DNA sequence: CATTCATGTAACGATAAAAGTAACATCAAA
DNA sequence: TTTGATGTTACTTTTATCGTTACATGAATG
């Protein structure tokens, strides 16, 4: 399939709302920054709202973060938009009559769960505040490389 | 897209070769255990061979592990079949004229690299030997739950 | 040494998850 | 009340993965 950009786009949306809080925060304006379309932005914003990360109001282009950026981790966003989606995937169609085919699914599930836990632990250490700070730092470096 | 099962199938192939070393190790026999097809098995075996994990011989159904199972990690297999494929994917189509769209790609690449490193570190701790042992343990538990 | 069967590899079609698109109900604001 | 926003669903398009077929190359056996 196509690779999922939902996490990347969701971070983009939250960072945009935080950074451009005095500008146009309509789904159309955000979609222009993401280079996507308003429906996708609204879909992702819906997921973020249901996860308690974003406050929106139907009919009004005034989304706000529901928590401080420092209190929102990359893992929170990942869970919000990817649900229980896993990074690694077991092949659930193997021959149950074979010693290997009949047991490898559970074996891999356990192993993949360890990898997933490690990845999620790292995601929990990365806050939206850090990502926003990084974006602003990169922007400053671009605009005045010698001035800083 | 469809979720990739290459890592799962590659582990399956290596475990099958190690466990059923006295049986039929043709790509057709292995494909029956994976419930896939011989061409896919041969493709994955080719990747494992190029990565130095498997020794094969054209024309002869006699594949052998190129290293001890304890010296093959899940990460080795991951690298062999997924190449430099990443677990998380940056959206590389964002508006470069926006503060957010113009900087978030590099910001996310750095963050995702940390997550990738954490996941890979965990993969390095999981050996093929452990996976094989787990498969055999589960098989024993199935056959004689009361006897053990 | 020819037959048989194996691997190695490439090309092409099928499948399925994601993103794109369009439509419309609901709500806010002037 | 008119305009324009969000919220949501249904459908189409896209594309990475997997399945299938084909065939060149090599091993093994009589």
Give a quick precis of the structure.
Chain A has 148 residues and is mainly α. Helix content of chain A is 55%, strand content 7%. Chains A and B meet through helix 1, helix 2, helix 5 and helix 6 of A and helix 1, helix 2, helix 5 and helix 6 of B.
Sheet/helix structural class of chain A? mainly alpha
Biggest chain-to-chain interface with counts: A-B, 57 and 57 residues
User: Outline of chain A, from the CA principal axes?
Assistant: elongated
SS strand fraction of chain A: 5-15%
Q: What's the CATH topology name of the domain at 6-86 and 127-143 in chain A?
A: Arc Repressor Mutant, subunit A
Residues in helix, % of chain A? 55-70%
- DSSP strand count of chain A: 2
- In the sheet with the most strands of chain A, the strands line up as 1-2
H/E element string of chain A?
HHHEEHHH
Helix count from the secondary structure assignment of chain A: 6
What is the H level of CATH, i.e. the homologous superfamily of the domain at 6-86 and 127-143 in chain A? Winged helix-like DNA-binding domain superfamily/Winged helix DNA-binding domain
How are the secondary structure elements laid out?
The structure is a homodimer.
Chain A: H1 6-19, H2 27-34, H3 38-50, E1 54-57, E2 60-65, H4 74-82, H5 104-125, H6 128-143
Antiparallel strand pairs in A: 1-2
Chain A binds a DNA duplex (30 and 30 nucleotides) through helix 3 and strand 2.
